[in-house]
Amino acid sequence: MTARTLTTAAELAGRYDLVVVGAGPAGLSAATEAARGGAQVLLLDENPTPGGQIYRAITRREPGPDDCLGPDYWAGRTLTDAFAASILDYAPGATVWGLEPGCALSTPTVGVSLGGAARRLPARSVILATGAMERPMPVPGWTLPGVMTAGAAQIALKTGGLVPRGRVVLAGSGPLLYLLAWQLVQAGATIVAFLDTTDARQRRAALRHAPDFLRSPYLTKGLALLVKVRRRVRVHSGVTALSIAGDERTKRITFRQGARARSIDADCVLLHQGVIPSINLASAAGCKIVWNEAQRAFQPHTDSCGRTTAPGLYVAGDGAGIGGALHAAVAGRIAAIVALESLSLLSAEERDRALEPLLREQALYRRGRAFLDTLYQPSRAFRAPQDPETIICRCEEVRAGALREAIALGPPGPNQLKTFLRCGMGPCQGRLCAQTVSEIMADERGVSPCEIGTYRLRTPVKPLRLSELAALPTPPDAVFAVTGEHPVGAEH
């Protein structure tokens, strides 16, 4: 048997035991594990093929002598092959725009668009495996053509084998930026500079976590990657300021090291300063959202098995806190096993036996995480830009200076700040500015973002056509709320 691929909303079943959102390592392993345990499973994913960002387009490619992606990428085939052989439903190209949590009298409901039609789909349990997104890195000129995030460049490389032309500059910090640098070197890109913004003070702070990192599975790979990149690319360490200039597109990048400012001609600039959990669906579902000080990011509150504060809703992988691809795959299996027990497809004893080795494996992949989180924590200068002309909200073109002026007027949090500037109300619904807005507001008031909070989201969390919305069946409780009458034939 193989996974059944669905292309239209009409093909969806009326109800599922488990709906998994996201086909990265966490989602693939969760769906495979749950299907193996006898659950009726649906996996929903926006992308046309499984793999998520880390294994993007892996089922469409074959390794060759000129491969630039490396063995860690191709290791994802184990997950995609097991998933493809599972008995479950798989809906690529699906947009999940809403999630209503369960309660004592009802189960979660997923709002999804597929093939041009929308559905509200009941499920006994839901696992969110929506992964991570890149932390925004607003610097002067970051909206110019020719400036991209490292993740966007990786998408182009993995999906279409596209390599940026001309003089390429990578700027920022974090392991992903070094990985991309090596992949682009292998693919033939001309990288003229790597501007490393890692804060020297963070290097010293990370030393106390070094013993744990020395026992982690990432040590050898990480050191080898650093050595390879530094042999082939000129790395400028200790960069404290960046600005990008150009008329109609990127022409040069200026950076500061200590008291010295320098400029480099560039045709393409790739920015990156780590990744943060993607929390929009969990937030819209009413899950408790908490601040992770070590990772400088908001994330859903979960226990060690992925349970959230909303009944029947789990979060697995980087969407619950950044841990990497291997950690995410294990976390997906853990969440699926706990969900199977809640669905009465496993006994408590079977659940505990299955979880024991997986929890040990999960702890192994988390070993050394504190070292990486501390070392690559972005500096204040890039988390909360001081230059008043720097655009923070790209959708509404709100600049840092306007934000700080509005914050001085006293709005209690980011949600109230929206009424002043519409910041976070554009098509991306705050995905590209929420983190920075919270950081700037915290910076202005001298507190932690934990005290500021982040945007509260509500359905729909993704754009939804009015024709799809209008075609949805009207639930009886909605009719009663408007008319005060129960529809004929509805239970009440």
From TrEMBL:
<dbReference type="InterPro" id="IPR036188">
    <property type="entry name" value="FAD/NAD-bd_sf"/>
</dbReference>
<dbReference type="InterPro" id="IPR007419">
    <property type="entry name" value="BFD-like_2Fe2S-bd_dom"/>
</dbReference>
<keyword id="KW-0560">Oxidoreductase</keyword>
<dbReference type="InterPro" id="IPR017224">
    <property type="entry name" value="Opine_Oxase_asu/HCN_bsu"/>
</dbReference>
<dbReference type="InterPro" id="IPR041854">
    <property type="entry name" value="BFD-like_2Fe2S-bd_dom_sf"/>
</dbReference>
<feature type="domain" description="BFD-like [2Fe-2S]-binding">
    <location>
        <begin position="391"/>
        <end position="442"/>
    </location>
</feature>
<feature type="domain" description="FAD/NAD(P)-binding">
    <location>
        <begin position="16"/>
        <end position="330"/>
    </location>
</feature>
<protein>
    <submittedName>
        <fullName>FAD-dependent oxidoreductase</fullName>
    </submittedName>
</protein>
<dbReference type="GO" id="GO:0016491">
    <property type="term" value="F:oxidoreductase activity"/>
</dbReference>
<dbReference type="InterPro" id="IPR023753">
    <property type="entry name" value="FAD/NAD-binding_dom"/>
</dbReference>
<dbReference type="Pfam" id="PF04324">
    <property type="entry name" value="Fer2_BFD"/>
</dbReference>
<dbReference type="Pfam" id="PF07992">
    <property type="entry name" value="Pyr_redox_2"/>
</dbReference>
<dbReference type="InterPro" id="IPR051691">
    <property type="entry name" value="Metab_Enz_Cyan_OpOx_G3PDH"/>
</dbReference>
